[in-house]
Automatic annotation (TrEMBL):
Pfam families: Peptidase_M23. The lineage of its organism: Bacteria, Pseudomonadati, Pseudomonadota, Gammaproteobacteria, Aeromonadales. Residues 213-311 form the M23ase beta-sheet core domain. It comes from the Bacteria. This is Peptidase M23.
Amino acid sequence: MRGLWKEGAGIGLGMVLFGSLWPWSWHAQADIHRYHDANGVVHYTDNQKYVVKSLPASGQEHAFNRDGVLVRVVEKPDGHYFFVLNRLTVAVDLRFRFSRQHNVTIPKPMRQVLTLPPTEELFVGKLSAQAGGDWRYDYDFDYSNDDIAQAHSETSTKRDARSISLPPGFVSNKTTGSYFSAHHDLASPVAGRYRIAQGFNGDFSHNKLSNRYALDIALPVGTPLFATRDGVVIAAVDTHTGGGLAPQYRGKSNHLRLRHADGTMTLYAHLQAGSLRVRRGDRVKVGQRVAASGDTGYSSGPHLHLALQIDKAGRRESIPFTLQGSQPVAGLWMLGSALGDE
């Protein structure tokens, strides 16, 4: 996990800037924050209405699903503020590991084992520059409900995280100018009744940074598709044929990508060969017919793969959205209507 700060800059940089906060309102009175778990997987959740997780019978979270404790970082001009959310029903010990440090001050409590109370989010420390100029660091973390103090490299002393106070100069846990400063709602991509076959965080294939917040909508091949937002076509491919779960179909999905005024992008994938009605550079209006659904590329059956993404330091990252004003859930049937001309 990487953090990098340039003197005079207003944003954090890095190929993957773990821990940066992107506030986003799913509902009017809920702030959705951007976290990372111990495996580096991105999570978007409300720090007040998150899902409480039970500790596995083994006494420790499984190595492949280390999301009981989440970390977020709020970037301010005076430093990076670290918050830790323990979603578990038991207290845990957490330790950070820092590497590739350059011109960065790390407070002593963040070099100790921190004890976190159950189901609570706490401020645990602020990283800042030692002197003027650029500063950077890499970090990761681990946690357990077993005593890990003796394994800590610097000290066996444990610190109760509740004893760490948020500096009085910290004004808000929000940053400005992010992609999540406003609610993102997409119009229906289909005219008529349709079913969401796989939702956000789907176990089958929605488990990567680019598709964690994507939908699979079950549709017959050839179903007309409509733009869910105004935008400009930045990619349009419909020359691939064939589909299935064989390795040769990876990367062979016909797709359409639209960039919107706020910098986000919608992706429509597995399109029918030869069905695109727009080309790269075209301006598209919401409700405009753009293509037809298909079954091309790495696909388990006819469907539309729909995602809203951002470009983050050269990597595409999916972000949450609502569909027709509703939270899209796997198994949900919805009724859409075309907004424009076919």
